[in-house]
Design a protein that fits this description.
By secondary structure, the protein is an alpha/beta fold. 39% of the residues lie in helices and 28% in strands. The chain has ten helices and 17 strands. Strand 14, helix 9 and strand 15 form a beta-alpha-beta unit.
Amino acid sequence: MRVFSAVGEMRGFSAHRAAIIRSLIAVVGLAMAFAAAVLSSAARETGNLLATAILASAALLLSAVVAIATVPFLAKRVVAERVRDALDYQVTKEGLVFIGFVLLIAIAALNTGNNLLFLIVSALLASIAVSGAASAAELRALELTANFPEHAFAKKACPAHITIRNLSRWLPALSIAVVAPRQNESKKVWHWEQTKFEFPKPSPSRQPWVRLPDLKLERSEKTKPPSILRQPLYFPFVGPKGSAGSELALYFERRGRYVQNTFGLSTRFPFSFLIKTRNVILNRELIVYPKVEQTEEFYEMLPLITGEFENHVRGRGHDLYRIRDYLPDDSARHVDWKASAKSGVLKIREFAREDEHRLRIVFDNANPGMASAERYERGVSLAASLAFYLAEQNASLTYAAQGLGEPTLWGFLHHLALIEPADDPSVLDSLSLGADFNLVLTWRPRGTIVTSVWQSSYVVFLNS
């Protein structure tokens, strides 16, 4: 929280400095415009029409520049806090029909001069004003709290809790809906892109004489992270000084980062002429982990992985721990035939382990173009499914991947939630091989795998 506070203070200081600079520019510009206007009046008194026209045009031009360059910016700064709680209005079909009806009666009143019609028009317009004032007062008295789950998986419903509190002492809140604000998920932005200036243009038979670094201004589409809340949540009644909460199930089609900085409190109360929405600032971010499911490929692979791991761990100790009865999943290599012959029942030798052996899950990320988008998502989901399943079985796990931060289960799933193909060196080139057994999921061809990786490792080729 301290880091975010420091960042906010720096941004606030920068914004205040920009506002001060704009204010000084406005003062200087208006002073110059005033001086030009005074000089134009003096020139007109002397009869110099050319000087009058030039000075008057300069005063007008300076005023226009100040108005365009500084007034909108400063006005936005002044009302920034109020704009956040501003109400958005959207006319409903019922409201359009009602307004059309009011216009017809108003035209009839103007044509006939009938006082009764004027009274009816006044009453109808007053009902619109009352509707706007009542719904605005209702929305401004509301307080919103949104609690989202700490862990969420793609294609799996996860619970969230939304609470509305009514701060008004006397008035209840009726027909309230919590909605996501209307916003574009992508926008066009200008940015500088590094390029090279070459003269003459290169061709297969000719090399350029001059080649220099250059910059090119490009306009590209910047995609915003998708919002968390997609479906509205309805509250029919919230009493005075009361609160109402509701559970909702969030469902995400894809893994990734979901961000929502604004929530909308919307109402049609009392006459459904307008849909009024008050925007509430609540910064929320949710990391959705890859889809975790036990597919046919998962069931085919799991026995091979567990068998390799057991063979790697078993038998490393040399001290006899105990002799016990044979179980169906025991290996025949550990049968104690002498004890079995004496007792007439198969007996198994168990040895004490010299150390704790762990299973390390290694996700070797793909380079761009190595796999299609569908195959890549399937590979990421398989890695997340194996990690989650083995963790549920209380296996001692570690993790490795390019750029992996926290080597824990949730850190690994967080890494897989945001991962994309990248031009990074293979994690297998720097993998330290020890006593751990490695479950390697890689997109590399078989012939490019380092020979030492095959020792105490089970390799899954995701691109085959």
